[in-house]
Amino acid sequence: MRDVFVVGVGMTEFGKHPELSLRDLGRQACRAAIEDAGVKPDEIEAGYCGNALASVLQQTTSVGQSVFWEVGIHKIPVVNIENACASGSTALHEAWKSVAGGFCDVAIVLGVEKSVMPKGTALNVGTASLEAQLGDIFPGNFAMMAARHMEEFGTTREQMAQVSVKNHISGALNPYAQFQKILSVEEVLASPMIADPLTLYSCCPNSDGAAALVICSADFASRATSKAIKIAASVLTTGGYDNQRDLTGWEAERSAAAQAYEIAGLGPEDIDCAEVHDAFTICEIVHYEGLGFCPPGEGGRLIDQGVTALGGALPVNPSGGLLSKGHPVGASGVAQIVELTWQLRNEAGKRQVADSRVALAQIMGGSQQGDVCACTVHILVNEQMPAASCLS
Amino acid sequence: MHKKIEDAEQQADWVPVQPGLFTYPVPAGKKPALYANQCQTCSGIYFPKRDICPVCFTNGDLVDKEISGCGTVYTSSIVQIPSPSGIRPPYACGYVDMALENEDESIRLYALFTDPDPVKIACGQTVELVIDEVRRDDHARAVMAHVFRPVDKD
Question: What ipTM goes with this model?
Answer without folding.
Answer: 0.92
